[in-house]
Amino acid sequence: MTQLILEQALNGLQFGLMLFLLAAGLTLVFGIMDMINLAHGSLYMVGAYLAAAAAAASGSFVVGVLAAVAGTAAVGALLEVTVLRRLYARDHLAQVLATFALILIANEAVRWVWGDQPVLLNAPEALAGPVEVAGFSYPAYRLLIIAVGVAVALLLYVVVAKTRVGMWVRAGASNREMTEALGVNVRRLFTLVFAAGAGLCALAGALLGPLLAVQVGMGESILILAFVVIVIGGIGSIRGALVGSLLVGVVDTLGRALLPWLLRGFLPAETASTLGPALAAILIYLLMAAILFWKPAGLFPARG
Amino acid sequence: MRLTALAASLLLATSAHVAHAADKVKVGFLSTLSGPGAGLGVDIRDGFNLAVKQLNGKLGNLPAEVLIADDQQKPDVAKAEAEKFLKKEKVDFMTGIVFSNLMLAVGPQVFDSKTFFISANAGPSQLAGEQCSPYFFNVAWQNDNLHEAMGKHVQDKGFRNVVIVTPNYPGGKDAVTGFKRYYQGKAEEIYTKLGQLDYAAELAQIRALKPDALFFFLPGGMGINFVKQFVGAGLSKDIQLFAPGFSADEDVIKAVGAPMLGMFNSSHWAHDFDNAENKRFVAAFEKEYGRLPSLYASQGYDAALLIDAAVRDVKGKLDDKAALQKALEAKRFKSVRGDFRFNSNHYPVQNYVLRVIGKDAQGRVTNKTMGTIFANHADAYVSQCKMK
C-alpha cells in the first residue's frame, strides 16, 4: 500500500510538472496582458509534432526536443506579432472567439502537413526500461520528465524572481499601466514572454509525446487542466502555477488509483471499478470549487 | 415506332412494381479515420478497397461507388454522417464502423431505412441478442468471442490470479463478460477511460495487486501506449501478458516492436493462415500498402467479398430486400479466414485460434498461429435474438 502511494505520488509529480510547463506560459500571458489565449494548447501540439519530425529526421530525441522548443518559440513570437497583438485592447469575448479560431486553424494546418493519424515519437532507447527506486521499479523516462520539470521550474523561479526581466514581468503582472509609465517596453516584453511560453509548451509536448500520442487536437484536453491550474493558483503568479499544477497532478493521479481501491472496501467490485474512475475525474473540479470558495482569487494571486 | 413507345411505357409501368437491376452499387463506408483509433478504420478501409480493386472496381458485376466518411470516433459525428449516407446519397450498403458505441448509436437509423449494414468490426452483444436486426450482418465476430477464447486459454494454462484492463464502454464490458465466461479464477477488473493514453495510475494499481497474468483489451493507440508503459514500468518481468488479437495485431506490433515478443493472443484470422484466398490477400495487401495486414484489414476485405457475392446472387436487384437478405445469409464466398457461416443472428460461427508474437523467417516481429482454441464457436446471445 505504501508503495502504491509512493509510486502514485511520483506519477502525480510527473503529471503536475508537465502541467506546470503549460500553465506557466498561460498565466504570464493572462496575468500581464489580461489576454485569454485558448490557442495555448495548439502551441503544445505544434511542439510535439515538431519534436517528432525533428527526432525522425535526426535520429536523436534530444535534437528533436531542442528543435521543437526553438521552433515553437519562433512560431509563438510570430503569432504574437501578427495576430494576438491586435487583440489586447479587445474584450475577453473577442479574444476567446479569435483564439478559438486559431485552434481550428492550427488543427487543420497540422492535419494538412502530417495527416490524420497520430505520429510516432519514441522515448530514447536507453530510457525505455525501468530503474529501481526505493525498492520497486519505476519507468526511467518518467524520472527524466520529473528531473526536467524540476530544473525548468527552478530556472523560471530564478529568472522571474532574481533578474531584471523577471522584475518587469512581475511588475507587468501586478500593474500594467504603472509599469508602462515607468518606461518599460511592455510591447516587446510581451513578445518575449509569449515566445518563452510557447517554448515551455513545446517542451511539455515533446516530453509527453512518447508517453501519450502526437495527434491532432491533443492540446485541447490538457488545456482545460492548465486553465484549472491557473485559476487555482492565482492568475499571473508563477508560484501559484507551480503549486496549482502539483495539486492537480497529485489529486488526479492519486484519485484514479486510490478511489477504486477505497470503494472496493464497501462496494461490489464491479460498481467500484466503474464508479471510482468517474469520481476521480470530477475530483479536480471539486478541488477547484473548494479552493475558489475560500480563496476566490486563487491561492497566490499576483494582483490584489 | 408507336409500338416501341408502347413497349417502353409498359416496361416503365411494370418496373414500379417489380424489382429491377440497379446500374451501380453504392456503399457508405463510415469509420474512424482520425485520432488514436484511426489505424483500425484505415486498415478496414484498405482491406475493403483492395477487394474492390481486385474485382475491377465492381461489386457483384456492377460498378461500385464507395463513399468514405470519418466518424472521428464520436457518436454524434457518426450519426450525422450516416444520415447523409442514408438520406442524401441513398446508399445500398453501409460498412466500416470500428467501435461498438458508435455502432449502437448509428444502428437504429440504418435499420429503419432498410439499408444493410455489413459490420467489418463492431460486434456489440446487444445487436447479437435482443436488438438483432435482419439488416445487420457481422462479418467479423461477436465482441465477446476473442475474449472468450483467451479466457479459455488462460484458464487452461492454470493462471488463477488475473487482472483485466479494459476501457469503460460497451466493447470493454463485452470483453470482461467474454473473458470471465471461460475463466474461473480470481479476476480484478480495472476500467479506463475510452481513448485514455497515460496508464501511470493503472500500472501502479497493477503492481500493487501482484497478479500472475494480465489480460488487456485496449484497441488502437490505447494498446500501443499501454504495452510500452507496461514494459517501461518493469512489470513484464513478473506478469504474463495476454490479449485478444485486437490488442496484439500488426498495427500495435509495428508501433511497439520487440517488447511484445512472446505475447499470446486470440484471433479468428492470422496472416499465416494456410489457404489460397488468404495467401492471395496477404501478398496483394503487402504489395499494395507495404505492410502486413491486420485482422481489421482481413475483415474489411471479407465485407467487400460478402457484398460482392450477395449482389451477384440477386443479379443486381438491390430493391428486393428479402432476396438480398437471403443472399447475404447464404455467404457464397470464400473467406480469407477459412470456414465460417452466419448464425441465425447474422453473426459468424467459426474457429478461434491462439497466436503468439515471435520473429518470422525474415526477422520481422509478427504473429504466428499456434493452434485452435475453439472450433465452430457461436456467440452466447444467439438464443435471445428473435429475428423479425
Topology diagram in text:
The complex is a heterodimer of chains A (304) and B (388).
Chain A: H1 2-33, H2 40-58, H3 61-82, H4 92-114, E1 130-133, E2 136-139, H5 140-162, H6 164-174, H7 176-181, H8 186-208, H9 218-233, H10 238-263, H11 269-294
Antiparallel strand pairs in A: 1-2
Helix pairs in contact in A: 1-5, 1-6, 1-8, 1-9, 1-10, 2-3, 2-4, 2-8, 2-9, 3-8, 5-6, 9-10, 9-11, 10-11
Chain B: H1 2-15, E1 25-31, H2 38-54, E2 58-59, E3 62-70, H3 75-88, E4 93-95, H4 100-112, E5 116-119, H5 125-128, E6 136-138, H6 144-156, E7 161-167, H7 170-182, E8 186-192, H8 200-209, E9 213-216, H9 221-232, E10 240-244, H10 250-256, E11 264-267, H11 276-289, H12 295-313, H13 321-330, E12 340-342, E13 348-359, E14 365-377
Parallel strand pairs in B: 1-3, 1-4, 4-5, 5-6, 7-8, 7-9, 9-10, 10-11
Antiparallel strand pairs in B: 2-3, 11-13, 12-13, 13-14
Describe this structure in words.
The complex is a heterodimer of chains A (304) and B (388). Chain A is mainly alpha-helical and 304 residues long. Helices cover 75% and strands 3% of the residues of chain A. In chain A, strand 1 and strand 2 form a beta hairpin. The longest helix of chain A has 32 residues, at 2-33. The model of chain A has no long low-confidence stretch (mean pLDDT 88). Chain B has 388 residues and is of the alpha/beta class. Helix content of chain B is 41%, strand content 21%. Chain B has helices at 2-15, 38-54, 75-88, 100-112, 125-128, 144-156, 170-182, 200-209, 221-232, 250-256, 276-289, 295-313, 321-330, and strands at 25-31, 58-59, 62-70, 93-95, 116-119, 136-138, 161-167, 186-192, 213-216, 240-244, 264-267, 340-342, 348-359, 365-377. In chain B, strands 7, 8, 9, 10, 11, 12, 13 and 14 form an eight-stranded mixed beta sheet that branches. Chain B has a six-stranded mixed beta sheet with strand order 2-3-1-4-5-6, with helices on both faces. In chain B, a hairpin with a 5-residue loop joins strand 12 and strand 13. The radius of gyration of chain B is 22 Å and the shape is globular. The mean pLDDT of chain B is 91. Classes of the chains: A mainly alpha (304), B alpha/beta (388). The A-B interface holds A 1, 3-4, 7-8, 11, 14-15, 111, 116-118, 120, 123, 128-130, 136-142, 210-213, 215-217, 253, 256-257, 260-261, 269-270, 273-274, 277, 281 and B 33-36, 38-39, 42, 70, 168, 188-193, 197-198, 200-202, 204-205, 207-208, 221, 224-225, 228-229, 231-235, 237, 255, 259. Chain B: It comes from Azospira restricta.
